[in-house]
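User: My instructor asked us to take a sequence, write out its structure as tokens, and then describe one feature of it. I'm not sure where to start. Here is the sequence I was given:
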Amino acid sequence: MVHITDSVAWVGKIDWELRKFHGDEYSTHRGTSYNAYLVRDRKTVLIDTVWKPFAEEFVEGLSRIIDLTKIDAIVANHAEIDHSGALPTLMERIPNTAIYCTANGVKSLKGHYHKDWDFRVVKTGDRLKTGDRELIFIEAPMLHWPDSMMCYLTDEKILFSNDAFGQHYASEFLFNDLVDQNELFTEALKYYANILTPFSSLVVKKIEEILSFNLPVSMICPSHGVIWRTNPTQIVEKYLEWAKDYQENQITILYDTMWEGTRKLAEAITQGVRDSIPQTEVKLYNLSKTDKNDVVAEVFKSKGILVGSPTINHGILTSLAAFFEEVKGLSMKEKKAAAFGCYGWSGEGVKILNEQLRLSGFEVVSEGFKLLWEPDESALLLAREFGKQVAKQFL
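Assistant: Let's start with the prediction itself. The structure tokens for your sequence are:
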């Protein structure tokens, strides 16, 4: 337990060992935390729980802090397993405790656990009086599930934001002003890019709605990562920036290769881009050897990308295919792209890459560069020139 204020405590779990999340879909190089909060007023309210593997530990730890029967209400801001996983174990001990959630939260919790607990459905503007304070509920559908919501604690002026404004980042320091700022914002951007990008228009609307309530915010307490207590709205400002077709002065080049020909093209093209626009940061990644979520974060930051693959069995290499499957669902906008690759006989690779780029929402600015067999010096010069020309179209 860590006291946030005199009446609010963090009662979550830091998971230092986690390296994959959402099954095997999201990399967590720096671990994560499952943040749960205990509000103690004349009524005691628990806000969220932890992931199922830590359910017993969580409930036992909570029972050492408070008589579990003294918990008057539970707020389930989001029913996904990493937030609600300890509920079944907890509810075995206090089965009649009311659970406050959205209507979609009821559906989701019943779908996960098949229990008919005492659900209390809330919507935006509804309030739960805890004593001298109130919890005000704010629905946040599709940020990032249909059931998601936030709640705001008066007096302390704390926004419990659930998945919004979080990071997969383990730290004993718990607060934003105590951790490495580069690590913090790297993880915050990666989290946004990989999880919230598809909902960017909703992010803007929801933030504008919350701002319209004119609620002062002294702290933002997300469900993963550190608590924003020093200049807490800086992460809100970042979200507004990231949600509006974000890009930095960066071009990212992605490729995979079989016999090094496409790698050689990628390196020559990279040099051409650097020659053409030296003030722009250029990053080069072999997709088969690079973490896909880190790559997604780099693409999110980029104003343009180039993708390369040799042709194999009338198709492209599987790392490229997986990349497109990932980015199609993210719906990134206002980014330009071009393709390249080697081939030995059929040569459809570049055409397929162009099709996939368009389907993924990129503006394809060139028909691409494809080369029969391995590149020699003259071919590498052509590839370098291709990089120069494409780079100008990314400006």
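For the description part of your assignment, you could build on this observation: The chain has two domains: 2-242, 250-394. Try explaining in your own words what that tells you about the chain.
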